[in-house]
Each structure stands twice: as structure tokens, then as C-alpha cells.
């Protein structure tokens, strides 16, 4: 019971923390990159649903992980220390999801791998924004 409540509250709490820490970094280009990151990740989820790659391996693409991974990678690109805390919390969330048998570690870790290009995108946009402000 308590674990399911924690699982339900994690994403909204991470989103609130993400908004708090990303509010100063949220330039127009970063906002576009953030939306593009979600479009990429959920676009991949729809493509995966059509082709069934995870299902063919007896696994499940984790849309819960996508939702938090994009925020975590945005935080990592803006504030590495805060991003590391968020990453650790995402792994703890993964533990909760496995204990509740929502997803396996394979589901979670492979979904995070799919979301890694978002981190690259956010880092590039952040680096360009910091260069143009000099």
C-alpha cells in the first residue's frame, strides 16, 4: 500500500522539483528541446508499441520511466549535482516499480538507454545558450 502511494507521488514530485530547478534555465531553445525530448521519447514508445520489440523479449517499455528520465536528463544538463540526486531517486523509483511488479529492471534500464539522447540534446542546447550569453 505504502509503496504504491510512493510510486504514484514520485512523478508529480519530481516534476515540481524539475520546474523549480529548471525555471532559470528554461530559455526558449531549452523549452523547445524539452518538448522535443518528450516527443522523441513518447514517439519512440509508439513506434515500439507498433513493432513490439520489448514485448518480443518478454519485456515492457516503461512509459513511467520515460516521464521521469526526460526530467532527470534535463536536470543533469543544467545542474549536475541536482541531476545526480534526481538520477539516484529515479533508480529508487525503479526499485519501487520492481517491488510492485510494475516493471522489471530490464524494462527500466533499457527505457533509460532509449532516453539518453535527450541528455545530449539538453546539454548541447545548454552549452550553446551559455556561449551566446558570453
Short description:
By secondary structure, the chain is mainly alpha-helical.
Protein model, in words:
- The chain has 134 residues and is an all-alpha fold.
- The chain has helices at 2-22, 28-51, 53-56, 63-78, 80-99, 105-132.
- Helix 4 (63-78) packs antiparallel against helix 5 (80-99).
- The chain starts with a helix and ends with a helix.
- The mean pLDDT is 92.
Structural class: mainly alpha
Strand segment tally: 0
The pLDDT mean sits at 92
Give start-end ranges of low-pLDDT stretches.
Answer: none
- Assembly level: single chain
Short key terms for the protein model shown above:
mainly alpha, 134 residues, globular
Topology:
Blueprint: H1 2-22, H2 28-51, H3 53-56, H4 63-78, H5 80-99, H6 105-132
Helix pairs in contact: 1-4, 1-5, 2-4, 2-6, 4-5, 4-6
Amino acid at each position: 500500500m505504502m509503496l504504491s502511494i510512493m510510486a504514484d507521488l514520485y512523478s508529480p514530485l519530481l516534476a515540481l522539483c524539475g520546474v523549480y530547478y529548471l525555471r532559470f534555465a528554461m530559455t526558449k531553445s531549452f523549452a523547445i528541446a524539452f518538448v522535443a525530448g518528450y516527443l522523441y521519447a513518447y514517439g519512440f514508445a509508439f513506434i515500439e508499441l507498433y513493432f513490439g520489440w520489448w514485448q518480443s523479449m518478454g519485456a515492457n517499455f516503461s512509459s513511467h520511466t520515460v516521464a521521469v528520465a526526460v526530467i532527470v536528463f534535463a536536470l543533469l544538463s543544467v545542474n549536475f549535482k541536482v541531476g545526480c540526486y534526481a538520477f539516484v531517486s529515479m533508480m529508487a523509483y525503479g526499485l519501487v516499480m520492481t517491488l510492485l511488479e510494475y516493471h522489471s529492471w530490464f524494462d527500466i534500464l533499457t527505457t533509460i538507454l532509449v532516453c539518453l539522447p535527450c541528455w545530449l540534446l539538453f546539454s548541447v542546447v545548454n552549452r550553446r545558450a551559455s556561449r551566446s550569453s558570453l
